[in-house]
Amino acid sequence: MNKPSYHPNYYSIDDVMATQERIPCRAHHELFQMGFLDSSCEKNGNLLPNQQLEVPLWYLLQDEERTRYFSLIVPDIFTAAYKEIYKADASYVELGKLNKFYYELGMYLCKFDNGDDLAEMLFNTAQERVKGIKDMCNNVSSENLMDNKKLDHLERMLYEEGSRTHRMFSDWLQEKSVNIKSTELVTNHRKRKRDALEGDEGGSQSSQRMST
User: Fold this and answer.
1) Cβ neighbour number for residue 18 with a 10 Å cutoff
2) In this protein, which residues make up the domain named DNA replication complex GINS protein PSF3 N-terminal (predicted)?
3) Which of 62, 70, 69, 75 is nearest to 23 (CA)?
4) For all residues of the chain together, what is the average pLDDT?
5) Which residues contact 84 (CB under 8 A, 6 or more apart)?
6) Which domain does 22 fall in, by range?
């Protein structure tokens, strides 16, 4: 399983998928023969100043010089408007529906404008939602998470790991309980057997004294 990576990781499928997300941006200057970046332009056309387009995140991360030509526009799901929604009750937000790689994408965007505010929002949202994930793990059921839009990719991994650990712990407790009961049965059986033997020996000695 590919574990999430919050740093560039060439061999991580999750990282590739997260950075493949198309991010809105705006051209600072006229860029000659760069129209291929925008499907609404001619392939060999020019990008005009302030023209808005969407490019994969990796395109902006690959070379910091590109930020001289493009200004990134933070997606709505990471803006102050959604921050109020997360504050109201983050546990009911369908993060998986907003973006499958919500947290990892947000971590990448922290390096751009308002990074501190976005990082705080991500932290508070995760802190609030992890309580619900913990409750789900402690009540493992046959619920199908494939159709659960509330969890993003990282939260699904946390749930799967938490559920697995909870099942292992429950199995261990059950096995330990069985072993304890077995030990008690053996101990009680030996005690009764010892008492019976001592009783037989005591009766034999009394019979011998009476016969003499």
Assistant:
1) 26
2) 11-58
3) 75
4) 77
5) none
6) 8-73
